[in-house]
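re: ur question from earlier - yeah i can do the single chain one, its not a big deal. heres the input i used so u can compare w yours
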Amino acid sequence: MKIGIIGGSGMEKLEVFQDAKEIIMKTKFGKPSSPITWGKINGIDVFILSRHGTNHEIMPSKVNYRANISALKRLGVTHILATTACGSLNEKIRPGDFVILNQFIDRTTKRESTFFDGKLNKRVCHIGMAEPFCEKLKNILIKTGKELKSKKPKGFLGCSEMRPFPTLKVHPKGTVVTIEGPRFSTRAESGLFRSWKADVINMSTVPECVLAREAGICYSAIAMSTDYDCWHKSEPVTLEIVLNVMKKNAENVTKLLVSAIPKINWEECSCKEAIKSALI
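and the output i got, formated as tokens:
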């Protein structure tokens, strides 16, 4: 069992290892977004990749999602925990809250969304995505979130000093609408997505989770709410607002990831088998 962490916006330099090694990779789909950092958590191999580059230099439409997933697959990764900044379309999901995603709506238009494109792979793939996120990983994240909310840890990432753990609110399910970006939505678009019963909006979950399913990797995503998009009566979303909340989210999501990883057990999962019935 090997765990991959894909860090989204605000998580470009996720530091969870005492002794980390950097891996430079190239795949047949090109280079991944960043070097991959390797280390161990509770004896488990963990590989961290920054979705938007080490310095957040890659906009969502230009992320080489195929190279990222392919690189993690080549390293033997069996499970991926992804983080993603998002705007809230639901009054109950406040800035700073986390959502364990269970559905998506795809509004992207410019991205390579399959490994089986008729070029490098000469087959056609119709992967099933009725339940796009791994049920087992989702449940682990939900359970861990509840545990962290009910207690204050004595230390953080090996620190010996007492540090209060910031308030953590984890919503156990939510639908994300993934837009192309890089611009934010208009009020009309934001209202439309709310009418579709979407809970949050981002620019990165698709095609990342689709490619993970094609690769047979269990995948779950933690959506970190930074704002109320522009539908809300509060001030419209700006980059400054988003960045400020991202900083507050970083410690919470790092603790959630580090606490969840030891609970993951290698079991045969339908995520791994989905590709077998999807190829023509």
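The longest helix spans residues 239-260. not sure if urs matches, ping me
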